[in-house]
Design a protein that fits this description.
The structure is a homodimer of 400-residue chains.
Chain A (H helix, E strand, L loop, with lengths): L34 E5 L14 H5 L9 H8 L3 E6 L33 H8 L5 E6 L5 H7 L2 E4 L19 E6 L2 H12 L10 E5 H6 L2 H18 L2 E4 L6 H27 L2 E3 H10 L4 H22 L3 E6 L12 H21 L3 E9 L2 E9 L4 H16 L1
Parallel strand pairs in A: 1-2, 1-3, 6-7, 6-9
Antiparallel strand pairs in A: 3-5, 4-5, 4-10, 9-11, 10-11
Chain lengths: 400, 400
């Protein structure tokens, strides 16, 4: 791929080959000297945002304005070297794009990078950029963070304006980012959140039993020592259960809420263009088109109850500690049926923050047989800075 | 496209560009001197059958044997110059392939060729070959015959062995062919049906009122003088109704029977490969996966009743006369919703022969505003030769 500003030797298939989106960073600023990439759902003025689908790309015009998040990063001195591959229309958590290929997971060769912010995670994990922008609607930053061994945040819903990105489901869409080190992660966070990230620490750790029950035994085992260290840092921890009934049930309700909105966002284009889509992506749209108003009402009511149930658990700066994904990255190219269980389990974990609109950070601490397995901290709405600061402290304490 | 045997100047986008399937015809035989093409669902030994989908092509091995129908044509002296574009996995009746483009309809520029045997119809209508092989499960020979102004037959189900073709729904799949003139059409028919086509004529014409009611007024009007001429040739005609209830209801039942089988044929591959499909093709598979056994039982019972109802109407060599399609070819690139009505109307016409397993021939006699509009003759099972012979007689009588 040639690029107006740089030549990228993309051995990871992380970057969009038909895009030459490049932005010079401001000469001075808090991110001067850092390079980044953005998932191909972020607009860059003058370029068509591809959204991971060739028919999307040919049926849309070049963006008039650069996405707000991209703009603030460049103004802060970071240099954007390109756009990265995404699961088409941000639909998917495994990162296998049928049109453009699967970005390599540098930490787990032969395995998926996770999605939908697959290329961003791949590029950061492979050292091609210092950090990268992604988005997280149903897990699209958290899952690739876990699979590729990166820091990654799903911020509080509404915290980072979505201006200039391809929308999936506005009630769940968030902008997140990836980095290899907590210090870099925090520097970027200060710019994106437009806020200082001072030292901070949760008041209490709640170890989510029902979330750990969903994880493979080896994953739970690998995370356990880190849960202990984190609990020790805080000095106040307890076990707790997230769901009154089951996380799988919560997942099903969250699925309906997100997919109804996803269908509403896409249906006009699907009707007009009849585009090529990966079978399971199309299948999901087809299923979403059949979601009833009664199902949406029921799901909204479950969501309201869940928010109410979780409020006291998280109040006053408490943090839930849980596995980010139920297993490490699975091999590339598995069948849909072979993936069905892992897909559900991962979504049963990611739906929690989605239903709450709460921030969740992935800590790339553990490994299972050499494969990254992420540990998550989830705080109350607005606790983004605290989570990032605490991640930085944890990293420092583990190094010392 | 270069080809082992010939160079094809494919200005119509009718041929598969990545295929070089070529078969020399035997030096002597009844089809010596004729050229033909085959829809890319027919195996040619040593080549991968593409099925109109790039992911099908890359996940299948080269065929070991040449399809029986292709083989008998080559043995009879016809030269096969290439494979033609099909709607992916034969799913579609409009002929717009999202992966390889839409073959040109030489008789109706800017309009679809009809599908799924789109490239075969395009190549014959454009004079690139003398005849071409297609297949018809739910209308895939009849609709493009009507749209491109060609003779085309859906033969009696089971009459031409399906050996060596990509199967969609075995209870409905048939092999058909296209030609510009009835004489050529009959010569090919003698080889494919392995039977002489002697002069023959129906005993009676039944003009299907409910089928004509589905056609656009202009189409019905354009067909009417030909119905009169055909009736006059036979000297025995009457109006009749095909369906006791409605053809749209018959269509819905036929849809379930065909699509359940289509799902059974494809589901293993869909699960294993998670391929790229056009949205409405994927949507149809998703809908088919939800068809219940009770629906299938009900549809089978409707089919049995319908066969019983039609037997006396067709017995003794009677033929139903009806529009092949409700309208001429629509413009390329319309939205799914803009096409929904025409899709249903056309399927309400094509489902009749499908439910009966009966042969139906398209006669390219009429035009509406310069666009071909086909007239169909449908006979009892086994009346293929008579339909072809009568088509030849009609053509001769109109020329004289």
């Amino acid at each position: 791929m040639t690029n107006f500003g740089r030549v990228i030797d993309d051995r990871l298939n992380a970057f969009c080959r038909d895009s030459d989106s490049y932005l010079e960073g401001a000469a001075e600023g808090p991110l001067a000297g850092l390079t980044f990439a953005a998932k191909d759902i972020f607009d860059v003025a003058g370029h068509v945002t591809g959204g991971g689908n060739p028919d999307w790309k040919t049926t849309h015009e070049p963006a008039e304005k650069t996405a707000r998040a991209v703009g603030v990063l460049a103004e802060a001195g970071a240099e954007m070297i390109g756009k990265t591959i995404t699961d088409e229309l941000t639909r998917g958590i495994f990162g296998e794009n049928a049109h453009y290929g699967t970005p390599v997971n540098p930490r787990a060769p032969g395995r998926v990078p996770g999605g939908s912010s697959s290329g961003s995670a791949s590029a950061v994990a492979g050292g091609m950029v210092d950090f990268a922008l992604g988005s997280d609607t149903g897990g699209s930053v958290r899952v690739p963070s876990s699979f590729c061994g990166l820091y990654g945040l799903r911020p509080t819903h509404g915290r980072i304006p979505l201006e200039g990105i391809l929308i999936q489901a506005p009630s769940f869409d968030t902008i997140g980012w990836f980095a290899r080190e907590a210090a870099t992660f925090a520097r970027v966070g200060e710019v994106l959140l437009q806020s200082e990230i001072q030292e901070a620490r949760p008041s209490r750790i709640v170890v989510a039993e029902d979330a750990f029950e969903l994880a493979e035994r080896a994953v739970a085992g690998a995370l356990e020592p880190f849960v202990d260290k984190i609990s020790a840092l805080v000095g106040n921890s307890a076990a707790g259960r997230i769901s009154e009934t089951s996380l799988d049930e919560l997942r099903a309700h969250q699925w309906r809420l997100q997919n109804r909105e996803g269908w509403e966002s896409a249906r006009g284009w699907l009707d007009r263009v009849n585009p090529r889509l990966k079978f399971d992506v199309a299948e999901r749209y087809a299923a979403a088109s059949a979601i009833t108003d009664a199902e949406i009402e029921a799901a909204s009511s479950v969501q309201a109850d869940f928010v109410e149930r979780m409020e006291p658990m998280l109040a006053g700066g408490a943090v839930v500690c849980m596995p980010t994904t139920a297993a490490p990255a699975p091999p590339v190219g598995e069948s849909l049926s072979a993936r069905a269980t892992l897909r559900s389990l991962n979504s049963s974990l990611t739906c929690i923050a989605g239903m709450l609109g709460a921030p969740q950070i992935n800590l790339p601490l553990a490994e299972v047989d050499g494969l990254p397995a992420g540990l998550s901290l989830l705080g109350e709405r607005g606790s983004d800075e605290m989570l990032i600061a605490f991640a930085r402290e944890i990293e420092a304490s583990l190094k010392s």
